[in-house]
């Protein structure tokens, strides 16, 4: 049933106006699609509720909300403040503002949370690396207040842990692309066809589906060396092999394909990195993470890699860990 449903879902998005497509989603007996519909509804309704409550408070003259909006550092306050200060021709309508808010709030939620889960899983199994990272964070933290942005993003070992995890375990193992015109794909090195011919490029017709192997590129031993399948944050604390630069990987992040490249690259990759580092710095400074003794964790390689517990009777994402106060 999987493949007919895949074709059905791809066809629905092309049929009629949004109201009609929503009607089709509601009447089709497909639990997975209905669950996805409910998730989208929660995301949208939450965004509307937050936006409308702030808007009403401003219109009613709530001074506390006005002060928070003028001084707040959260994304919604910054977005609304920028829109209020914009010229008439540049000002966004409420619908557009709400769309931007939903994108900023929920975009990359699954991929970033998956990457954070993977880091915590790895750190729980590598206590020496966890201790070293915790010490770096504690030494950088001022006596009072938050860790400044410039210092947080420049912590070398924290950056190395994030980069190495995103290299070895990208949240998306593959991504699909469709050619919009006839193209010729150059190969990094020639290959020999079954008829004995040497091939250095592949012609790809228009409207051909192409699968980009993100994980395969990130783990290529010819590029990253014989230890390419090992998790070694220290590799980022020293010069990378010459083969990395020579490969000319088109990714926008650290010679990796994790965030893709070109015009369709991840537009929020800087934000997701910052989000990961903020969460890790707060958690690791105070808590120690160890593997659960009662749960065997395995990772489902669906569209996005997610942790689950073996023999738990459910495929829902979960990562049980032992959490203690760190000394």
Automatic annotation (TrEMBL):
SUPFAM superfamilies: Cytochrome P450. It is found in: Membrane. The keyword Iron applies. The keyword Heme applies. Its main location: membrane. It comes from the Eukaryota. Heme binds at residue 266. Pathway: Secondary metabolite biosynthesis; terpenoid biosynthesis. One of its GO terms (cellular component) is membrane. Its cofactor is heme. Keywords: Heme, Iron, Membrane, Metal-binding, Monooxygenase, Oxidoreductase, Transmembrane, Transmembrane helix. One of its GO terms (molecular function) is oxidoreductase activity, acting on paired donors, with incorporation or reduction of molecular oxygen. Pfam families: p450. Belongs to the cytochrome P450 family. This is Cytochrome P450.
